Automatic annotation (TrEMBL), chain A:
<dbReference type="GO" id="GO:0005886">
    <property type="term" value="C:plasma membrane"/>
</dbReference>
<feature type="transmembrane region" description="Helical">
    <location>
        <begin position="221"/>
        <end position="244"/>
    </location>
</feature>
<feature type="transmembrane region" description="Helical">
    <location>
        <begin position="61"/>
        <end position="85"/>
    </location>
</feature>
<keyword id="KW-0456">Lyase</keyword>
<dbReference type="GO" id="GO:0016829">
    <property type="term" value="F:lyase activity"/>
</dbReference>
<keyword id="KW-1133">Transmembrane helix</keyword>
<protein>
    <submittedName>
        <fullName>Formate hydrogenlyase</fullName>
    </submittedName>
</protein>
<feature type="transmembrane region" description="Helical">
    <location>
        <begin position="97"/>
        <end position="119"/>
    </location>
</feature>
<keyword id="KW-0812">Transmembrane</keyword>
UniProtKB/TrEMBL annotation, chain B:
<feature type="transmembrane region" description="Helical">
    <location>
        <begin position="160"/>
        <end position="183"/>
    </location>
</feature>
<feature type="transmembrane region" description="Helical">
    <location>
        <begin position="115"/>
        <end position="148"/>
    </location>
</feature>
<feature type="transmembrane region" description="Helical">
    <location>
        <begin position="470"/>
        <end position="493"/>
    </location>
</feature>
<dbReference type="GO" id="GO:0005886">
    <property type="term" value="C:plasma membrane"/>
</dbReference>
<feature type="transmembrane region" description="Helical">
    <location>
        <begin position="74"/>
        <end position="95"/>
    </location>
</feature>
<feature type="transmembrane region" description="Helical">
    <location>
        <begin position="203"/>
        <end position="226"/>
    </location>
</feature>
<feature type="transmembrane region" description="Helical">
    <location>
        <begin position="371"/>
        <end position="392"/>
    </location>
</feature>
<protein>
    <submittedName>
        <fullName>Hydrogenase 4 subunit B</fullName>
    </submittedName>
</protein>
<feature type="transmembrane region" description="Helical">
    <location>
        <begin position="298"/>
        <end position="321"/>
    </location>
</feature>
Amino acid sequence: MSTLGVVVQVVLLIVVAPYLVGVMRQVRARLEGRAGAGAGQPWRDLRKLFRKEPMSPAGSSWVFVAAPAVLVASTLVIAAVSPFVATVSPLDGVADLFAVVALLLLGTVALALAGLDTGTAFGGMGASREMTVAALAEPTILLAGFALSARVGSTNLSAIVERGQQSPGAVLSPATLLAAVALAVVVVAEAGRLPVDNPSTHLELTMIHEAMVLEYAGRDLALVEFASALRLTVLLGLWANLFLPWGVATTASAPALLLGVVAFVAKVAVLGAVLAAGEVFMAKLRLFRVPELLAGSFLFGVLAVSSSFFLA
Amino acid sequence: MSIGWALVGVLVIAGLGALGAVATGSRGRALVAGVSTAGVGVFGVLAGVSALGGEAFSKTIPQLLPLSEVTVTVDALSGLFCALIGGVAVIAGLYNIGYSDGHGSRTGQSLLPLFVAAMILVPAAGNVTTFLVLWEVMALVSLMLVLAEHRLRPSVRDAGVWYAAMTHAGLVAILLGLVLFASKAGGESFTALRDADLSTTTRSVIFVLVFVGFGSKAGMVPLHVWLPRAHPEAPSPVSALMSAAMVKLGLYGVLRVGLDLLGGGPRWWWLLVLVAGGVSALFGVLQASVAVDLKRLLGYSTTENMGLILLGVGAGGMFAADGNRTLGSLLIAAGLLHALNHAGFKTLLFLGAGSVLRATGLRDLDRLGGLVSRMPATTALFGVGALAAAALPPGNGFVSEWLLLQGLIHGLPGADAVVAVAMPLAVGVVALTAGLGVATFVKAFGTGFLARPRSEEAAGAKESPRTMRFAMLVAAAVCAGLAISPASLGPALTRVLEALPTVRDGSPLEGGVTLRLTGIAGSISPVLILAGLFVAGLLVVVLVRRGLPRRESLVWGCGGTRLDPRMEYTATSFAEPLTRVFDDVLRPEHDVDVTHHAESQYLIESVRYRQRVDDRVEAALYPPVLAAGNKLGAVLSRLQNGSVHRYLALGLGGLIVVLVVVGLTA
């Protein structure tokens, strides 16, 4: 029965991810006074792209071909091992918070190498910027993880979520709130959203993620687009369940799983809508101001750990 | 096989190999040297594995050294390092057969097996004299190996001078520390040192002295300056031996003297080790992330990894000093595991860099590229090493960094303010190091091997001979084994920790498929993560990639003409954002030369731009020391004018001073 939880979770994430992107675009469109294409548009785009042949730029290698598969695979592994819908899972103990962070980084690296492999200035530029942002975000993630796990005594994600459900007051503790702010900045940076990166730009001065994937077409592009939607969902889902753990199933029974699914969809949809609404009022930061933002979030991480010790 | 016979095998094969390489002509020399080096390595591994299996060995040969005796003692701690060095030697020896084929110098080739033998015997030394003699033999032989190619590049000589000076400064520190230790303990065998009853001040002086010495061998900042010079300039198999194996003996020294012979000591010792490790890790990775010379990048990455290892050992020693053996043993086990992992992937990476150097004559990443289609096997194997060095799953570096982080974050409950401040900062350092390490190796692999070649040399590269590829394959297999089954090393690591009296505490890690920690709720399963990635990747390929064939297309050139390789991103441009972010620490030098047209000031003929990132620690600390040394030398040179009478007078004066001192103190 607990295996069912894993299957439900993976299938749910695969289905929901493109809709999340659709909802966010729709929210944004409405706030900007446009009609919008509807929440289903990303799925329609993906269907179209999946029917088109993949293209490799001349002179590129197997790295370019393999990168989208690695990116999707690393994100799918995260989708399987993290507690999005249920904390009881046969895969619990396979990967903890640190391993999930490292798997996310693996996907980033695959795409960065593909960007360099195309041999274009755009690909290299995107790879260089993406790796800089990823490198500087790393300390914040691990420190926020430290603050969260100090309370529980373990970096196991299910343990952190379950502890959050048992003692709701702890969610409002200074350590957790500071960690939430720190991680929120990092989620925005890792998902490539404003103000760090603009997913809808194609202007060379501002591109990060889009510059890396510029040479992808057809099915490859579909995989890359799908993977970035899935990563966004995974990141928002992790943030939601670490700081708002309610609704996550702690038993493998059907009603609990159903509740878990509903709670997950609701949480991610609300967070996505909030993020999209925030983006309407925000401009992209200059690239060399991004490290300052990340340094600020690192400071929040340090404060979170210190307060988990000194205010415990 | 017993440890004693394995050590005899090490000596005999090293001697025969050295003589054989001297006697052989240039055609067979690399083969003789390579095979004997690998043979020495095999015996080293055998000795090490027996010791890790629980066998102990001790032997005293009184007649061999004047005024002292030779003592050889092998326990599990020695065994780990014998096995590590032996393993690296087997791979480097095999690689040498193809790498030095036909052009290896007589000195360089014949010293190779001796270098390995000296390194294997250092951890087997059982008294101070034996240890110091072997340590110095190792240093001298490695110095000559660094200088092997001095006729080809003038920079080799410079590297040799730096290495000679630093390694001897380190030796002086170790010598002072151990001689002080032996004289206060009243005996020089390690058993006597272990039982000595010394005051805390004496112990602290000894520890700081030996830590400085061993730290310089391990490439600690600010004593690291020789490392990014000597490791790149040595022939590649020697680079691998030095960077993967020799620096680990610095770690051995810290563990042996600090935790075994001195028996732990107060907390500030280990805080010192932790801080030195953290600073080295950060500085090393920062320099590596902006380096454009592939072997220099790998050298700085060695400083980084040794820093991480010492950070783990320092934190472990701190917890052990507080009586928390669970965390102490976990962190030291993490350090030891990272030492093994680093030996595996750094061997692979240096050999990969050597293959590139042999095929193109280049170490400059800005001029490489396009090797993925020209040297496919080398590229793939270097990729495996880079994945491990970047500490990403499913590489082996990830497992030991994970263990390190687990140890660091569980120290908080029940800690005091020092630990509560030190641990979060240590986690931040490890995390930033990991992040920058990923960027470093994406740069090394992405600009060095992928895309299109940036120079004619890179365009004309040919794949390496079979023996070199085989050696790298063995190294990659070792990395894979360490990555998939770290838990199988649990029993061996437990035995090693038993040699450290203040740390030993059951087995720190256990489990089969899933790696579990004892006393701490934490687990990962490297095998299942790898399997998950494989299955998910396969599903993606099968479900999505079927049917439509792949088509080759032109690269988007912004509507312009076809792209030129000069328009590609280079290693320098890749690292530019990081250079800019860490501007205050790195202080890069920019030179812009604008040449104007002869006819008019307003027309520009050419613009030259050059950027260099020097080692800032070196630039700040070493010139004053060197200037003071020169000044002292100039003063002292007045004492000698070449006259025999002057020297006789100096000798007489010295004798009188000694007699007066002895008369006063006796």
